């Protein structure tokens, strides 16, 4: 069974860990905050509250030769670099790390990251693509067989609940989050829009026009769902 290590249990890390576990994957979730670890402990194979910058802690957890490591501590670049380097030296097959700038990203690649995620930059690029393309998608490969797809909700999905779409049954994938522009009334009476992230939406969650679906699953299923109109 493939082993996934998720280090840093903020919104992104927690969502990835929980939904990988829902797909019956062996997930080890790590954070230095005991409260965050406690929140996720019932969902994953193993959860540990420890300092992931200490190589001994990672070795004690048996992370050597894990299949995928997700380093989601981008706000603390020194920790991110050290953890990425340690996972590489331990033989983790694929490492995905988070960075806040291109300079940080270059350093992470040099110390062993196979892919770097830039939250702020990627958000701007995706917005531009969203405005210019009717069918947006962005794929992050976790392993040769699994990935995370960010997809503008197809027209045929709009107005339907997740249980009606039967995505797990049809494509063997799970919606782990939905990005939605929520209207906000300003003091001057005008309306602005703020992007909201809905994590782990339930079966009765209804997809609306303009929603961005973040989908986790097997690559074959993700390839099929990209073609849905």
Automatic annotation (TrEMBL):
Coiled coil: none annotated. Gene3D superfamilies: NAD(P)-binding Rossmann-like Domain (3.40.50.720), Regulator of K+ conductance, C-terminal domain (3.30.70.1450). It holds the Pfam family TrkA_C. One of its GO terms (molecular function) is monoatomic cation transmembrane transporter activity. Residues 134-229 form the RCK C-terminal domain. Residues 1-117 form the RCK N-terminal domain. It comes from candidate division TA06 bacterium. InterPro entries: NAD(P)-bd_dom_sf, RCK_C, RCK_C_sf, RCK_N, Trk_Ktr_HKT_K-transport. This is TrkA family potassium uptake protein. GO terms for biological process: potassium ion transport.
